[in-house]
Write the structure tokens for this entry.
Amino acid sequence: MKQKKDVQQGTLALMLLKTLELLGPLHGYGIARRIEQISGALLSVNQGTLYPVLLRLENEGAISSDWGPSENNRRARFYRLTPAGQKLLNAEKRDWEQTAAIIARFFEVKAEDLA
């Protein structure tokens, strides 16, 4: 059985923005479940962690929200990516790709490469 991991600090906003880009407007619970699904059930998204990130991104203008009915006809807030959020996502993606490339170099380097 797979052990679920908590989302690493600083990565939730990126995953959230990418999920909204891929799937369009979603409510908070739907976002959490989709992140878990996309991770292959390896990540666990705590609601207490998710909603402060949603609030911060909305205050920054990266996402917007509207109230509407959920799948089970309950009132829910649906979040969507804004143009500013798309720009932020693109910048964050570039930063993470660069960081991953730098870290990869540390795993590939050999002592003789440094002589």
Notes: Strands lie at 5-6, 26-27, 43-44, 63-69, 75-81. The chain has one domain: 5-114. The two ends are 44 Å apart (CA to CA).
